[in-house]
Amino acid sequence: MRICLLNDSFPPVIDGVANTVLNYATLLTREEKASVIVATPRYPGVNYAEYPFRVLPYKSFDIGGAVEGYRAGNPLAVRTVSGMMEFHPDVIHTHCPVISTMLARQVQHETDAPLIFTYHTKFDLDIERAVRSRFLQKGGIRFLIENISACDEVWAVSKGAGENLKSLGYTGEYTVME
């Protein structure tokens, strides 16, 4: 099986979702359960060749005070999308409803591989912290829900996370993966 993982954070960023993607890719590779490729925004000075799986870092920029320590990836990362398509994934699994899911949707469109999204955290709170305008907050949440709704399957890390997703306007089904 060939699995393409995407996330908007990855080491050197240390957060729960970055750790999940790193551990997931490492375990699948080490246990020889799947061939894995990870697409993530590029962080300056990081050697991505040290991982036991292929990492496709794509152009990114510092988002500074909006979300300290994180970088935003380029949603038009054509070479990255091409690299993921050349990998011929059997499954595309994205862990962030922003740039990662935008790129995943492009790959799915070209490959017809099923697209899974895992909802890890309350992105609405992140948007509220980063954006002051209520109008823009609502637009950002609407964008996230549209991206999530385009996925073939939606998984939530807990019942509470799934309920939060529903409270934001998501009307589809989700599976709790505890």
Provide a descriptive summary of the structure in words:
- It is globular, with a radius of gyration of 15 Å.
- It has helices at residues 16-30, 78-86, 99-111, 123-130, 134-149, 159-167, and strands spanning 2-6, 35-41, 54-58, 60-62, 71-73, 91-94, 115-119, 153-156, 175-176.
- Strand 4 (60-62) and strand 5 (71-73) form a beta hairpin.
- The chain has 178 residues and is an alpha/beta fold.
- The mean pLDDT is 90.
Percent strand equals: 15-25%
CATH architectural designation: 3-Layer(aba) Sandwich
Identify the quaternary structure here. single chain
What is the CATH class name?
Alpha Beta
Q: Using the CA coordinates, give the radius of gyration.
A: 15 Å
Strand-and-helix sequence, N→C? EHEEEEHEHEHHEHE
Question: What structural class results from the helix and strand content?
Answer: alpha/beta
Q: Spatial order of the strands in the main sheet?
A: 3-2-1-6-7-8-9
Question: Overall mean pLDDT score?
Answer: 90
How much helical structure, as a percent, in the residues? Answer: 25-40%
